[in-house]
């Protein structure tokens, strides 16, 4: 069901160092950082195992106006499921936060859609190709 989750942090460099150290005994490591030109200037880092980032942190100081601290991504079995999630979420009252489509800045084959729910949470459906 869940693909990954993300939280906002108040001190991105310190949090990145903390999670790098704290997650190491669990077999997790820093897998990926998203270039700031794709994030509006925010630091964004993904931690996980086996090349799959499942826990993300991002710089709260660069948070978009009106957004909440939470991000959750649900796993989809196909691009059609991502499209259907997006249509259903919009119909149910969510606001668009990124129409369905490829996101090659994350990795080849990444196809996702983002909505903001009524509480300002960033909710995504993703298919990894």
From TrEMBL:
Domain of life: Eukaryota
Residue intervals of the VOC domain: 1-128
PROSITE patterns linked to this entry: VOC (PS51819)
Identification of the protein by name: VOC domain-containing protein
Taxonomic source organism: Vanrija albida
